[in-house]
Amino acid sequence: MAHVEPLTRAGTTHDLTGRVGRIGSGSAMLVLGILALAGLIGLILKVMSGPVPLNKWGYTAAALAFLLSTGQGMPVVAFATRLAKGYWALPLRRAAELGAVTGLVTTPLFIVLLFQLPDFFGRPSIWFDWPGGPVLWDSVAMILLTFTGLAMLFVSSRPDRALSTQQASDWPGTGRQWDVLTAGLVVLGAFYLMMLVFVHMYVVSDLGMSLVLGWRSAIIPPYHAVSGLQAGLATTLLVCGALRRFGGLRRYFGLDVFWGASKLLLGLSLLFFYFTWSELLTNWYGRTADEQFLLDLFMFGPYTALFISSVLLNFALPLALLIWNPIRVSVRGPIFVAGLILLGNLIDRLRIFVASWSVAGPLGPHRTFAPPAQYPDALDLLVFVGAVSAVTFLYLLALRFVPPIAIWEFKTGLLLTAERPYLKTEVAVVAKPQ
Q1: How far apart are the first and last CA of the chain?
Q2: Is there a domain that residue 237 lies in?
Q3: Cα–Cα distance for residue pair 27/374, rounded to 1 Å
Q4: Closest by CA position to 19, among listed 365, 407, 393
Q5: What gap in Å lies between CA 3 and CA 320, rounded to an integer?
Q6: Residues above pLDDT 70, as percent of the chain
Q7: What is the three-class DSSP state of 389?
Q8: pTM (predicted TM-score)
């Protein structure tokens, strides 16, 4: 095995600043850009054809919820590990914060969907006919979430951009600047988490629950938020794995990154089961006409396969795999589980929003039977693929301007880490000054 030189602060700065603009091939970005443009054209065609029939918007709403859960869930990983002083996560924080660019796609997509909703006056919802709801307040919440995420990315990358552009005079690095930087990231992260939970509630309530007459659940909004955090962490792990494999960053994304994240992934998988079981149990024991209809629509009717797949991929398989040390304490194991969870989240969002929009309509008698499963058409697939491609394109574009790892945070970790002999090996000892 080839000898690997230990990481030094000077070597880290030179290596990572040299990688700015080199991750992501031009041909890949061209393909992603074409797919994103095709998706935009598909969305325009949908809008021009009018809001009805309402069931044609189910897959577009699922695409929005999926991107909100995955891409916009990523910055929370950076905030949570920064707040808890999890030094194992230093290499992944920049990758997580870059997920904020997802908001540039989800915000206009959300606003478009809000204008396709049926009349909300008199409709049971969280707004109770409040003026401006849901279009105005949902839009404001999503815009604030996107702005906060981009502000986190801008503030976090400020010292690194000064290094990579050779404009250190813009960032002399005074003590006050560092104090404002570290405190500001915590404040922005807390506000981002708060807004993310609110937006999850608005999305699943206004684009899901309010469309299904008789669906009154206090469990679904936190379920949507928690499963979104799980998907955000899974997406972060997959991105780190891709940067490690294809970005030449193997030295930075070591075992500790994936091992530490796998513990959080296991806990979030257990929370997924808790909320799923709570929703199932409530409707199962209530057995009113509306609750029986909900069980048929979302779990045991036309979307049974999606429900079972979601539980398997988000809970059963991650639990069965991550309880074993050889899988959890590895690089490939957590990445594989993260891929399962990402697929499971996609299936879960399709189950919730496609089913909800399939029964959307004006106020009237409550339904007693679920309609057949709604399958995607060409425009649905075009919009879905285009939205995901647009986010990937923006992510790679952002990597052309900022280093893939937060240099200033990583170098802080090097300052606080020392190798010490322990029995027949050496272990890393990390000092925690605060």
Answers
A1: 38
A2: yes
A3: 35
A4: 407
A5: 36
A6: 91
A7: helix
A8: 0.93
